[in-house]
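Input (FMN dependent NADH:quinone oxidoreductase):
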Amino acid sequence: MNILQINSSARSTGSESTRLADAIVAKLQAANAGAVVTRRDLAANPHPVLDEAALQALFTPADQRSAEQAARVALDDALIAQVQAADAIVIGAPMYNFGITVQLKAWFDAIARAGVTFKYGATGPVGLVTGKKVYVAIARGGFHRDGPSDTQLPHLKMFLAFLGMTDVQFVYAEGMGMGPEAVAKAQAQADADINAVLV
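Output:
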């Protein structure tokens, strides 16, 4: 099994979403002898944002790109290759200001490429990244699950499905900003949920 772990917290230490992602990966490794894990920390190694230069590089035919353009496209190619090679993808996704982090958005922008990870068919877009099991570890300072302030979950579900990834499990740790008792309760519940999801 090839496991791809994406950590998108801005924190290098003390991130709950990363802790949960680590726990999910550990369970997957325990259940799959010889599993190979690739970890990408988007805070330690941020991917460049999708700007005008990147768009120009992507829309320039490969044989006409400058060296700088080819190098920029190659950065996205590397992320796409990791996703395509993975059997399981584990994403640590904290909520920042009611949404995903800028680091995760940059990763999403990099792996969404027409004709490679999705295509447009007669009835609309068709995801080309299929056969993957995806686990998303969500950490939040407050309580948003199933409420109107949870704009993060619909975004994650929609984007993953857009690329063809529909077998997705979510694990939550909410109330992380509500004091020690709330943190302990959230962590215990999240750990129990991981054990239930990864039996």
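Residues 2-197 form a domain with the Rossmann fold fold (CATH 3.40.50.360).
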